[in-house]
C-alpha cells in the first residue's frame, strides 16, 4: 500500500468498475497523483475517464479496489464529506440562486459565519474577474462567465483537490483557450491538486503536468505532455495524441536499437522499436507530420528517404498541409511551415520525403 | 341558518297546546349528545327536522347529523354490521325494508309499549299505532301513499284530463313521457289492475309465474315513453320542468309541488298505494347512543309531534290519536286534512302494500324487473 | 466486452464474481431508493390494493352456505341429484337443526337471498320455512312432555347435557355478577360458554349437537341462562331420532340423573306417533318438493364458487354443470357489449373532435396556442359534476338546446328532442368530459413533429392533402393511440355521468355494479362484474404502458 | 412562421378549406367551453328554473338575483359540505404530495429494482375504474373501522391523488439536471440539505402542480366519498350529486359557478408555475 506522500496524494489502487456486471468500464486502474499536481485524464468517450473522476468524487462506487485520498481510503465516505471541489461539464450552477448565493453555498453548509462568507465569496469572484456579477442569476450570464463562476464555486471553500469534468466543452475555441490559461494559472497559484478530464488532447497537452491517456478502461500511458507526444508508448497513444502518419508493416529484424520494417508495399525502412520485440511481429510505424522533411538538404545524411506522390495541397495560413501517397497509404500528411523559401507542392507531383529514424516509431499493430 | 332558526322559533311559539319545556322531558341519563339520523332528504326530511329534531334540540341541545341514505339503508347497515362499526343511530325506512332489516337482525327489536309514549288519550302505543306496527323493529311515523301527478297544460291532450289510474297506459289520449319508479313494487300492481285483474286477486295472480310476465307485458306498452326515477324528488322536478306529463311519486312531494310551488300539476288519487314509513334502530348500538335514540324516539313519536309533522308535509300520522290534531300548514295556513291520503275523498280506490308477499318475493321480482328494464 | 470470455461469469480482480461485487456496491444505492419508495408503496398497498383484492375475493367467496347449513351440506353429500327423488329424512333433520339455529341468528333470510341468485324462489322458501321452523318437532315435544314430564323443564336438559364443570363455572360467574351488582360495580365479564358433558354426544349425537347449539345461541345471542330456557322443538326431534336409534344398553352408560330421565323416554318413543319431516317442509313451502332446490344447495355447498362469474356472463351453475341463464334474465353480456360500444363511440367522437383541435394548437404560434390551450384545460380542470350538471341543463326537453332549436324554428315546440336519459345524452356528455384526455396527448405528440417534414414533402411536390396524409398523419398516430387508450380506459369505467344522464339505456356496467352493491345487495355478483371490468382495464393499461409508457402520461 | 398562415398563392379551394377548418375548430372550442359558461348566467336566475327566462333574455335586472348564492352561503348542509371539502382535500393533498414526492425521487434514481412494476402499482389508482376502487374501499374500510370516518375519506382520496403527484414530479425530475445534486454534494452539502436547498426548489413547480391535481382530485371526487364516507363526511361533490340525482336546484348552479371560478384560478396558478419552471430550466445550459 502506498504511503501518504506528496507523490501519492490521490491513489487509485487496482480499481475496477462495472455498471452492469457484464463489462468493465474501468479495468484494474492504478494511478498515483501527487500533491499540487495538475493531472489530466484524456481519452475518447467511453474510455472510463469520467467514471474514474466520478469514483473519486464519490458519485460512483468502485466495484472493486480502493481509492485513497491523503493516504486514507475514501470508498465509504459520502461525496459531501470528501471535501473535493468539482467543476461540472455543464457547470451545474444552481439556477434558483444568484451567483453570490451559489458561491456562498459550500460555505453555508460548512457553517461559516456571514461576514467571513461574504469576504470569501468576493475574493473568489475577484479571482475569476467576476467581482461585479454577484447579484446575477446564472441564466443571465454567458457560457464563459458561467464557467468562471463554476470554477470559483469549486475553489471558494479551498479544497485541496479539484476535479474538472470537461469544463470547457461548451465554450467556443477562443474562450476555451483563454480559460485553459486561467485555470492552469489559478491551479498553480493556489497550489491545488487538480484532476482534469477531457477528450481534447490539445487541452490536455497545454494544461497538464501529467496526462493519463485512457482507452478501453485502462491507462494507456501516463506521462508529461512532451513525453506523451514525442514518445507514445503504443499505437493508440500515438494516434490519439496529435496528428500522426501510420504505415503498416512487419518487423524484419531488430538490431542495435533499430528495427528494420518491411512496409506492406515492400519498401523497407528503419524505425525505433518501441513495443515490438521479435522479427515477424506486425507493426504500425508512426511518423509525426511535422517531422517529415521534403527539403533533402535539411535532412541529416542518415535519414531515410521515401518516394511520395502529392495528392492534395491545402493552404492553412501558418502552415501548408499536404496529403501524399506513401507506401500505398493515401492519407499520409505532412505539414510544412509557411516560410518564404517553402515550396508549394502541386497535386500529381512526385517527390522524395525523408525523416530521422528516431522520429519513426515502430509500435504495436492495433 | 338564521332563517331556519327563526322558523323553528316561531313554530315552537305558535303551538301552546303541544309546547314542551325542558322540565317536562325526563332527563336522559348516560346519553350521547348527538344523533346521526338517516332519512330520505327533500321535503320529507325537512318536515322531520322541523317537527321532531329542532324542538328536541331546543330542549336538550342534542345535535343532529342527517344522512340522506334511506334508499340504501339495507346495504349500508349490512356493511356496517359486517364491519362491527355502526355509524348510524336511527334510520327512517319504508315498511318492507324494515321487515328485511328485522329479518336479518340488522335492526333492533323493540317493545313498543315500553319505549313509546302513550297516546294523549291514554291509549297504549300498540293500540294507538295498531296496524302500522308491522314488525317488532318498526317504529311507525306516517302513512304515505304513492300517487300520480299530471300536468294540466298538455296541449296534446286536447283538454282531456286523466280521471283514473289507467290513463297511465293510454298513450292515445294522453301522449307524453311518464315517470315511474325504477323498482317493480307498485308498478306491477298498477299494471295488473289496468290489465283487468281485481284488487283481491292481485297477489294471487302475481304469485304465478305468468302473473309477473303479464304485468311486465302491460308495462311494455309504455316502456319507451317512461323515464325511471330512483329518488322521490325526481318526478316533481320532471313535472315542473315539463320533462314528463305524468308520473308517480309520494303524495307529499306532489303536495309541495302543487300547493307550495304552484305548478300547473294535479294529483290523481286513484289507486294510491299506502305504505308505512318509520324508524328502525340499528342493532347493537353502544349503550349511550341507544339511550339517546330511545329518549329522542319517545319524544318524536308522541301524539303531538306526529301531528306536528303534518304541518309541513301531507302525510298522515301513524297514530290514531294524532289524527284529530292535524291542523293547518305551518306556512300556508291551509287545512291539511283534505290533502292526507287517509282522507275518505281520496281513498275510493286504494291498495295496501302486501308487505309479507313483497318480503318473500322481492328478490325474484326485482331481478326479473331489472333484467326487463335493461333489455 | 473483449474480457467477457467464454469461461463463465466475469470475475473481479480479487476473484469474486463481478456481478456479486457489483451488487454489493449497488446495494446501498438500491436500498436508499427503496427506502424513499417504501412509504408510498406500503400506503398504496394498504389503502388501495388490499381493498380491491379483498373485494375481488368476494366474487368467488361462498362460505355462507356451508357456514349456515353445515349439517345439511354434509348430509347432502350422499344425495344423487339425478335420482329425481327428494333427500332422505336424515337430510331433512339436518336442515331442521341448521335452519332453527340460522333463524335464531337471523341468518336464514340472508342465505335465502344468496341462493336466490342461483335459483329463483329460494329466498321465499327460506323465509317462509324460517317462520315455521320453530314448530318442527312440536309433536315430539308434546309427546315427550306427556311421557316424561321432566323433559319439559329446561333444568332437566342441563342435567343431561351440560358438563358439570361448566355448571360450576356458570354458578361462579352468576355469583360474581350478583356481587358486582350489589356493590354497583361494572360487570362485563362474559359468562362461560356452554360445554357438553363427556360422552353424551356418543350416545345421543343429534340431540347433544342441537342442544349445544341451542345453549350457545341462548347465551351469546340473547344473553340468557340455558338452564332457564325451554329448548327449541327441533331439540326434541333430535332426541326422538336418537332414542329411536340407540339400543337399550346405551342409555345404561349415562350417569344416574340422565338415566332416570331418559330411560322412560327411551321406552316410550317406540310408541310415539311419528311424522314425516318432508311433509312438514312441503307444508311450509311446496318448493321443497323440487329437486332443483336441493341440488342448488348441493351445488353451492363448497366454500368457493364460480357462480358469480358465471352469472356475470349470463351463465349459471347447476348440479349438472354450466348452463345458459334463462332468456329473460340474460342482461350482462348485453351490458358489457353496450359498455364497449358506448366507450368506442365516445372514443371515436373524441378523435373526430380532438384531432383538429390538437392539430390547430400544435401548428399555431406558441403565444396563440397557449391561449387556446386554456380553453382545453378549463373543462379539464372543471369539476366533473359541474360539467354533468351543465349537460343536464342543456339537454333537457325544456333545456337550453331545445329552447334554441324551437326558437330558431328547427324543432316544433310539441316535439322537442329527447336528448337526455338515453345513450345520446351519455355519449355527448362523456365526449365533452373526456375530450381533453384526447387532445392533450395528441397535442404533445404533434408538437414534436418538426414542420420540416411537411415542408420537405411539399418541396418534393406533394399537395397539401398528400403532405398531411402521407407525412404528417402517420407521425401523429402514436398520439392517437395514446389518446384512444386513455379515453377508452376512462370511459369504460365511468359511473357518475351515465348515472345522471344515462336513463336506463345509457348506463354502463359500472352502474350495474353500483346497483348490486347498494340496492340488490348481491355483492358477489358486483365483485365478479368488477373483476371482469378490472381485467379489461388492466389489459388496456398494460397495452398503454407498452405503447406509451405509463410515466409518459402528460397532464397538460 | 406558423403553419396555419394562408400563403398568398393559395387556391380558392384551399382558402375555403382553410376557413372551413377554422370554423370547425371554433365550433369544437364552443362545444368545449359553452357548457361550462352557460351555467354561469343561469346561476343568477331569479326564478327556480334552469332555462333563460324572458326577463333574463331582456337583460332586465329583475330577472337576475343572487338568491342561489345566498342559499349556498346560508344553507347549513351546503356549508357543512363546503367545510368538509375544505377539510378533506388539503389533508389528502398533503399525504399524497409528501409520500408521492419521496417516491418519485426514489423512482428517479438508478438501479431501482422492479421499477416498472412499482410504477404500475403506484399509478393504478388513476386507472382502476372508480366504482371498483370505491366498492373495494367500502368493504375493506368498513372492516377496519375506517368507513364513515374523516381519516378513511382522507386516506382514500390521498390514494387517488398519488398517481398525479407521481406523474408530475417524475416528469419534472426527468428534466432535472442530476449534476446539480452532485454539485451540491461536492460542495459539501449532505443529502438532506441538498434536497431542501437544491432539489426541492427546482422541482417545486412539479410538486405544486402535482399537489393541485391531487387537491382537485379530492375536491372533485364523488364516487369514493359516497361509499367510504358517511353523513358526517358529505363533501360538496356529494351534495351536488345527491342534488343532481334528485333535482337540479339552482343552488347547484351557483356552486358550479363558484367551482368554475376556482378552477380558472387554479389553472392560472399552474400556468404561471409552468412558465416559472420553464424560465428556470430553459435558460440554464445543458
Automatic annotation (TrEMBL), chain A:
It catalyses: ATP + H2O + polyamine-[polyamine-binding protein]Side 1 = ADP + phosphate + polyamineSide 2 + [polyamine-binding protein]Side 1. GO terms for molecular function: ABC-type polyamine transporter activity; ATP binding; ATP hydrolysis activity. GO terms for cellular component: ATP-binding cassette (ABC) transporter complex. Residues 10-241 form the ABC transporter domain. Pfam families: ABC_tran, TOBE_2. Keywords: ATP-binding, Cell membrane, Membrane, Nucleotide-binding, Translocase, Transport. It comes from the Bacteria. InterPro entries: AAA+_ATPase, ABC_SmlMolc_Importer, ABC_transporter-like_ATP-bd, ABC_transporter-like_CS, Mo/tungstate-bd_C_term_dom, P-loop_NTPase, PotA-like, Transp-assoc_OB_typ2. Its EC number is 7.6.2.11. It is an enzyme of class 7 (translocase). The keyword Transmembrane does not apply. Part of the ABC transporter complex PotABCD involved in spermidine/putrescine import. Responsible for energy coupling to the transport system. Belongs to the ABC transporter superfamily. Spermidine/putrescine importer (TC 3.A.1.11.1) family. The complex is composed of two ATP-binding proteins (PotA), two transmembrane proteins (PotB and PotC) and a solute-binding protein (PotD). PANTHER family: SPERMIDINE/PUTRESCINE IMPORT ATP-BINDING PROTEIN POTA, SPERMIDINE_PUTRESCINE IMPORT ATP-BINDING PROTEIN POTA. NCBIfam families: potA (TIGR01187). This is Spermidine/putrescine import ATP-binding protein PotA. It comes from Rhodovulum euryhalinum. The gene is potA.
From TrEMBL, chain B:
This is Putative spermidine/putrescine transport system substrate-binding protein. InterPro entries: SBP. It comes from the Bacteria. Pfam families: SBP_bac_8. Keywords: Signal. Residues 1-22 form the signal peptide. It comes from Rhodovulum euryhalinum.
From TrEMBL, chain C:
It is found in: Cell membrane. The keyword Nucleotidyltransferase does not apply. The keyword Transmembrane helix applies. Its main location: membrane. CDD domains: TM_PBP2. Residues 336-544 form the ABC transmembrane type-1 domain. InterPro entries: MetI-like, MetI-like_sf. The chain crosses the membrane at residues 31-50, 339-362, 368-386, 424-443, 477-496, 521-544. PANTHER family: ABC TRANSPORTER PERMEASE PROTEIN (PTHR42929:SF5), INNER MEMBRANE ABC TRANSPORTER PERMEASE PROTEIN YDCU-RELATED-RELATED (PTHR42929). This is Putative spermidine/putrescine transport system permease protein. It comes from Rhodovulum euryhalinum.
From TrEMBL, chain D:
The keyword Cell membrane applies. InterPro entries: MetI-like, MetI-like_sf. Coiled coil: none annotated. Keywords: Cell inner membrane, Cell membrane, Membrane, Transmembrane, Transmembrane helix, Transport. GO terms for cellular component: plasma membrane. It is found in: Cell inner membrane; Cell membrane. Gene3D superfamilies: MetI-like (1.10.3720.10). It is a multi-pass membrane protein. It comes from the Bacteria. Belongs to the binding-protein-dependent transport system permease family. This is Putative spermidine/putrescine transport system permease protein. The lineage of its organism: Bacteria, Pseudomonadati, Pseudomonadota, Alphaproteobacteria, Rhodobacterales.
